[in-house]
C-alpha cells in the first residue's frame, strides 16, 4: 500500500496557499462594502461600480486558462508572485479612482489579471499536483477553507477601516497586506506526486498541451461541468456584491451586510473542508447536484420569509456552507478526468465559465437595481440557475480520460 499522508513539502505548500488565498479572496470578498461609499461620493449609479466588478470577473476568467498554462509550464510560485505585485498595484490605483474609466482600469483590468494568478485555479492545482490522488480532494478542501477564513477576517476589518479611515485609506492598507503574497509565493515548491510502481503512468506516452486541449474539447462531461460552474459564479458574485446594498434598501445598516458576508466566510470554512472530505468518499457530481439544489431552496426561503436580522444571518450561515464548496469538488473532477500535468490550464478553462457567470451576476444586479430600484429579476434568475446546476451534473462523470 502506498503512503497517503501529507508530505512535509505539501504541508508547507498548504500553509502558504492558505495564507495567500486568505489574503487574495479576503480582500476581494470585501469589495461589496465599497459600492455604496464610492458611488455616493462620486454620484455614480450602482451600475458604474457593478460594471467594474463585472469586468474584473470577465477578465479574470478570460485570462485564467493562459495564466494556468504559464503556471503549468514555469511553476506556480513565479505566477503567484507576479499576481501579488499586480494586486498591490491595482488596489493602490483603486484608492485614487475618481472616474468610471479609472475604476475599470484598476478594479476591472489590473485586479482581474491579478486574481487569475492568486486564486483557486493556480493554487489548488499546485496543491492537487503535490497530493496523493486519494487525498487530493481533501487537500484542495483544506486550501479552499483557508480562503474562506480570509473572507471572515477581512470583512469586519475592512468595515472598521472604512468607518475609521474612509474607503481610500482602507484600500491602501489592503494593498500593504496583499504585498505579503509576493514572498509567500516561494512556499509553493512541493514536487508533484509521483505514483510508485505505476504501470499505467510508465506505459502511457506524455501528451502535449495541444493534444490534451483536443481531448478536453471533445469530452462532453467536461463542458457540462463548466456550465455548472457558470451557475456558481452568477450566484456568488450577485449575492456577494449586491446583498449589502439590498439590505440598505430595506432599511438595514452597513454593519448588517458586513456581518452577513462575514458569516458566509466563516461557515464556508466548514463547507469547503467538508466538501473536500466528502469528495474523497462519494460521487462529486452528485454532491454538486445537492449543493446547487440547496442553494436554490435557501434563496427561495430567504425571499419568502419576513426580512429580519435573524433571517439575514441564517441565510448567511446556510449560504456560507454552500458558498465555495463547489470549488474543491469541481477541481477534483477535472483532476480525475485529465490528470495533473495540465491541471492549472484545464481548471482555468472551467473557471472561465464561472467568471462569465460572475460577470452577468455582478453586472445585471446593478442594471436591475438602476432600472427598477430592486433586484427581483436577478433573484428569479438565481433560482432558475440552481435548477440548471442540478440538471447539468446528471451528465458529468469522474471517469479517467487521461491518467496521471
TrEMBL record:
Taxonomic superkingdom: Bacteria
Domain Major facilitator superfamily (MFS) profile: from-to ranges: 10-401
Record key words, sorted: Membrane, Transmembrane, Transmembrane helix
GO molecular function: transmembrane transporter activity
Classification via InterPro entries: MFS, MFS_dom, MFS_trans_sf, Proton-linked_MCT
Transmembrane portions of the chain: 12-36, 48-71, 78-96, 102-126, 138-161, 167-188, 222-247, 259-279, 286-304, 310-330, 342-365, 377-396
Record-linked Pfam families: MFS_1
Protein name: Oxalate:formate antiporter
Species this chain originates from: Acinetobacter bouvetii
